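re the bet — no i am not wrong, look at it urself. input seq straight from the record:
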Amino acid sequence: MKPLRVLTLLAAATAVTWTVPAHGQGYRVRVDTRFQSVAYRGVQLDSVPAGEVLPGDTTVSGAAAYCPPGAIYCTYYSAGPDQRGNPFVASVDGVLWGFGVKGLRLVAQARLGWDLSNPDVWPGTQPAAYLIEGYAEYANRWLTAELGRTHTATRLGYWGFDGAKADVRLLGNRLFVQGYGGWGLGRGVALPVTSSALNPLDDLQPRERQTIWGGALGWTQSGIDARLLYQRQLDGESNNVGSEFVALDATVKPFRGFTVAGGADYNMAEGLWGTVDLAATLSSARGQLSGTVGGRRYRPHFPLWTIWGAFSPVAYNAGYASVAYSPIWGVELWGRGEAYKYGETEAESPNVSVEDSGWRAVLGGAFKRLSGWTFQADYFIDKGPGARTQGFDIVAAWRPIQSLYLVGDVRQLQRPLEFRFNDSEVWSYGLRLDYETATGVRLNGGIRYYDETRNRPDASAFSWNQFRVNLGATINFGSPTAGATHPAILSIPEVRGTR
């Protein structure tokens, strides 16, 4: 079903439901809008006949050119044209309850987006409207069931689907059972994989949507929280397995201030281990000092129908540590470091030395001792195979009154481009305002200036500066009260004890 048709049917169903008198019927709607004036500029590939390049020379009008032996044309890069867009995006969240059945409600979230410039140059504005979530939910102290467009988010990732999901809480919420299934959506976006917005290479896209099935089994008691996950995806045409995973997540708190968390997932469709991680965190009694040490093995996974699996992505192993310290009230210091190394690619490359390891680190601090003010600074560096970045952020925030919030920042970033042949340095300066009116409408706006210099040893070097402006508003309206607290919240023992 096309997204616009889904939105139309949902709006019609909501309008009809609204006209049905029911005891205690209510609704809440949140509209969040954003407008930006933005631009970008890259490089473009060009070519000239090889005969126009002088023998022994490798430049075209001073720009470095590539002339393979015997080639008819030489290629080179030059600065691309300015591309300016004016994207406008609005998201609408709505909840409708009070149908005479306690615990029953309708939930919907939709996204609208247009590029107001002509022609459209900003990515991500097609389709102009689609439904992110839209489902009917029934909940009580031991059951939460959803029917419609919903999602599941676990260590296996974020998966959206059109179908049903049910969470069951038993034995005083110690036992958790979940099951879900339906027609899957694309990874990371609420669109079917058959949508024209997701198939630039049409011949490689599925013609029918995949189905997705899965569930979880969890146990929580005495500082232990563990969940076993399973998920299977089937191809819509052949009914073959597209992906299949089993995973385990666990968190253990043997005593106050100490937590051990970890998990692993196994790709059953390919017979490969995916991501495995383990971390331990220790905090002081007053929370002034905390530290974490851990490690992980990360390997990406792709559905079998995609071409990406043919590239045999290798895993990397990483170890990391972080510490946060607050010597006095209003002063915070932190740091984090990580080192990683990729596994063997099992690919031969004679006479080529390839980097397979890297490291990254962050140092920062915050000062909050002045009334209404917050100052924060971070320095970061990331040195890895094929790329390197470093820079810093300085942020100052001021809240003169509760309804007004002002933020200013200065940021600097150095990054190599085009295989370290093109070094880019970017300075940016921003100012943001957030104001809540007496009626509850939240207004925000900001302006940012970018000063970018791309340093190259040839004539293709260029500097590019620009202003970016954004405006937004968030509006909440509906029934005077937001309805009863969600039964899933009331099922938490700590919450029940406060009532």
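see?? The CA atoms of residues 302 and 309 lie 6 Å apart. told u. also The first helix runs from residue 3 to 18. so pay up
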